[in-house]
């Protein structure tokens, strides 16, 4: 036995979250969007009026997070994604969130985790690792639709700029930068429907298991 872990990484709005949800349902696993954990900490600091640079306050918020009750609509706001990527450079904060994410993954029967450092840092022993990418234009279009569907009016050009800035910060940081694990399966969803991306991921995972 032991936990079955599927790691999914990639840049903002690459389609990894949708894939993670579908794969969790298909394989009967739990799902954790680790981006929400960084977003929730950033949101807690913003609500308390704390400085985003206050790592001690961020660590307290990380210990207090309830992984079962994220307010997804509110946390989806672009400014919270931006704040999340700013606090995500803090090594001691990352240690706390990574250890809680790992504990979640290791509970039986296992889980699908999506984020930036799942295959490289959080769950390097995952049975399957996907690195999901898509062109910036496709990602901006998808994310714009998603945010508008949550009732927030946004401009696609602003979303594109936000995505590019976050990608750069996430790839350039010293601690746990966004990059594919050496043994990750690369999946470019630019030209794929959700169904086609799901089938490609499932084929790879079935072979890896
Ligand atoms: O995936 P999402 O857009 O919700 O992530 C928000 C931010 O949280 C990312 O831009 C990144 O800086 C950070 N993050 C991270 N490691 C993860 C997941 C998210 O650093 N595993």
UniProtKB/TrEMBL annotation:
Pfam families: Cytidylate_kin. Its main location: cytoplasm. It is found in: Cytoplasm. One of its GO terms (cellular component) is cytoplasm. GO terms for molecular function: ATP binding; CMP kinase activity; dCMP kinase activity. One of its GO terms (biological process) is pyrimidine nucleotide metabolic process. ATP binds at residues 10-18. InterPro entries: Cytidylate_kin, Cytidylate_kinase_dom, P-loop_NTPase. Residues 6-198 form the Cytidylate kinase domain. Keywords: ATP-binding, Cytoplasm, Kinase, Nucleotide-binding, Transferase. It catalyses: CMP + ATP = CDP + ADP; dCMP + ATP = dCDP + ADP. Its EC number is 2.7.4.25. NCBIfam families: cmk. Belongs to the cytidylate kinase family. Type 1 subfamily. This is Cytidylate kinase. The lineage of its organism: Bacteria, Pseudomonadati, Pseudomonadota, Alphaproteobacteria, Hyphomicrobiales. The gene is cmk.
